[in-house]
Each structure stands twice: as structure tokens, then as C-alpha cells.
Amino acid sequence: MSEEFLSHCRHIVGEPFVLVAAADMAPFLDDWRGRYTGKALAVLRPADTEQVAQLVKACAHWRIPLVPQGGRTGLVLGSVPDESGTAVVLSLSRMNRVRSIDAVNRTMTVDAGCILQHVQDAAALHDCLYPLSLASEGSCTVGGNLSTNAGGTAVLRYGNARELCLGLEVVTPQGEVWNGLRGLRKDNTGYDLRDLFIGAEGTLGVITAAVLKLHPLPKASATALVALATPRDALDLLTLAQDRCGACLTAFELMSDVCLDLVATHFPDLPKPFSRPHGQYVLLELSSCESGEHASGMLEQAVAVALDRGVARDAVVAMSAAQSRGLWDLREHISMAQAKAGKNIKHDISLPISRIARFIAATDAKLRDAFPGVVLVTFGHLGDGNLHYNVAPPAGVAHDEFLRNQEAVNRIVHDQVDSFGGSISAEHGIGALKRDELNRYKSPVELGMMRAIKAALDPLGIMNPGKVL
């Protein structure tokens, strides 16, 4: 049966784009973090939506599970197959066209395989901004961004991927094409099918194209790194910055002293803005459609007030684009510094912003009681309530040995998240990694509705099986 299926796939996309040799498939089977490798019957690489539709029809006919895949930068095993070897990987990497840009409507229509950075660059050529910004933007794709409802550093001002998408083109599990590529900001004509597929992680259909929302390209931005004592001070600074800067406040990133110590250790050439350590740091960025003077003036006034009120202990305001880039490098190298330091237990969580300081204090204490000497690496997008709350082993404890405690650590962290009214996944998704955790924290009513939607749209259960549900 599999040979007949594969022969049909070769007829659809051409023999070079049906990969079956182990060496050819290997790059498509590894988890981004290098901790898991799946198996596949084949890797299929369609060139356009029609080929995707034909391949999905073939999968439905032969009952072959399929795993949609973009840039493979996910962190929850959502875009890699399991170890059974029965599924095919459907890689959209060849579908990377910018189909059209409407600068007046401020929209861009792109293939799902477009790399995020290429989309940003194409928008900029038309004096527009596509504001989704992630550390992996040089390799992640629009389809993956939408399938996981990606967030990033500019959610505070512009929203996450869901809010930056006006329409979709989707191949259903039956191989039909739904063309919802409408660049409309208002369309109240029934159920919002678009939002069903955004964040569904490929379990309901294959996103093949999208209409993205563009914004005016800011004239200038201003950046500052502010040193504080506690997360509570960071919340006070956020309120102050929002009151004084309004919609110009684009990014508000929290980093603990542990984070910057890691960066300084593993990337010693990066800037060292302060002569002495502080408990917490916040990276603020303002963007203005007026002028650089407008942005820098607002930022300097806000920082001056924070220092005068004792909210902030010290601050560095970037005086050039190069200095701004240097401050952002500190934030963007945290994950890389963690990787160089060794393995850790990661959590991508969200909380009501007002409860974040209490959550950090209470959860830090519980973890330190349970695992004395544990190192807590806390950073994230404080402006939208998203923390990357990572737990590294105590000094002298082997990383692989500490990872055996992952279930116990997750239980403490996720129970705390639940008790504070938060979510166990803010921007990474559920995938296979958090599937069982979802069953623990979602109500039976929510899970029942999700399963009903899955059964209605994908009755054969071939779309990214084992993910989310």
C-alpha cells in the first residue's frame, strides 16, 4: 500500500520532492532543541496549494497520517512526526512566494512557507511594517507562526499572530481548498473559520497562504535598559510607561540578573551596561511615527520619572541604532546562553500581568524548597504577561540527572500557573510535549468542545495526530 501511495505522491509533486532516504529525511525529523527525533514514511515537498490539496486527498484515501511542517523552529514537538514511522511530513518550505502587497489596504498575501524575516523585508520595501518579531525570524515561517499563534516582542503594541492575520487559505483534511484570503477588517458573515485554524497546530487543516495585516513603518524608535530591584518594581515601571507613552510603547521585556549573568559568561563581547548587578532589568522600546526626537524625548522623560520615584535604580538610554542593537542583543542571546550553559526545564507561561510578581515570588520559593540550589532563569514579555520561566540544575548537579525531575518541576510550576489564573502555554503551543498537561488543566467542557471540532473537521484523524489532543 505504501509503495502505491508514494508512487501517487511522486506523480503529484515529482520524484525529487518525495524524500524517502534516511539521509534526505533527517533534517525534517529532528526537534529544534535536539532532544527528539521522529520517523516518517516520507517527506513530501509540494510547490503550491493545488499540490497540497492532492497530497492531502491521497493521505485521506490511503489513511496516511500527515504532519504539516514549516521552519521547524517549534519547541513543543508540534511539527515532527512520532516514532511509529507511519506518517508523512508535509513540508511547505517550497511555498515561499509573496503573492501580493496592497499598501493602501495595508495587507500582504503570502504563501505559508514564507520565512518571517523575508515578509518583514518585503513590507519595508513598501514603507510598511509587519510587526511580528521572534528570535527565530530568520528561519520560522508564516504558516508555523499562525499555526502556533506566535507572539514575540511586539505583542504589547501590535498583538500576536492571530491579530495580524485577516484571512487564510486552508486545505481541509478532505483535500478541499477553502479560500478565505479576504483582506477585510470587518466581516460578520457567520462563524470565524479563520480563528479555528490559527493556533490549531495543523490538527484541523493545512494553512497554505495568509493575508497579513501591515502597519505604518515607524519613523524612529528609542530603546532603554532599566535596572530595578524586583519584579514588583517592573510592574510599576510598566504602568508608568503606559501612562506616559501610550501606544508608542512597543516592547517591555523583563530579564532577571541570572539571565544577564548567563549572557555575560557565554557572550563576553556583548555590552555590559551597568557597573554593578541589579535584581531585575527591563528593556523598553518606543516607536514613533513622528520623529526620533519624539520617541527619545518620551522615553527619557519616563525613565527620569522612574528614577526620581525610586521605581528604577539605574538606566541606560541608547543614543544610536548600534547601541539599541547592543541592548537588544542582550535580550535575544538569553536562550542561546542557556543552551551553552546546558539543559534546563523550560516553561512558556502567561499570567494576568498584575499577578506576575506574586507568582514569581511564590513559585521561586516552592522550587527552592523542593530542589535546593536550583537556578531560576526568568525572562519574557512582561507587557503582555508572557514569562519564559526556566529551571536549571543546582551547581554541581549533572544536567541530564536534573532533567529526571522534569515531571515534578512541571507539576509545581503548572499548578502555580493554574492557581494564579494563567496558562501553561503562552506562545509556543501544546504540540505533543504538553498534550497530557492540557488534559490536566483544561476543563471537561473545553476539552469536549475541542474534541467535537476535531472530529467534525478531521473525522479520519489524519491531521497531525497526537498533537494538542
TrEMBL record:
PROSITE patterns, A to Z: FAD_PCMH
The UniProt record lists the keyword Flavoprotein: yes
InterPro entries named among the record's database cross-references: FAD-bd_oxidored_4_C, FAD-bd_PCMH, FAD-bd_PCMH-like_sf, FAD-bd_PCMH_sub1, FAD-bd_PCMH_sub2, FAD-linked_Oxase-like_C, FAD-oxidored/transferase_4, Oxid_FAD_bind_N
First and last residue of the signal peptide: none
Keyword Flavoprotein: yes
UniProt xrefs under Pfam families: FAD-oxidase_C (PF02913), FAD_binding_4 (PF01565)
Alphabetical UniProt keywords: FAD, Flavoprotein
Domain FAD-binding PCMH-type positions: 36-217
Family, as annotated: Belongs to the FAD-binding oxidoreductase/transferase type 4 family.
Name this protein carries in UniProt: FAD-binding oxidoreductase
UniProt organism field: Massilia agrisoli
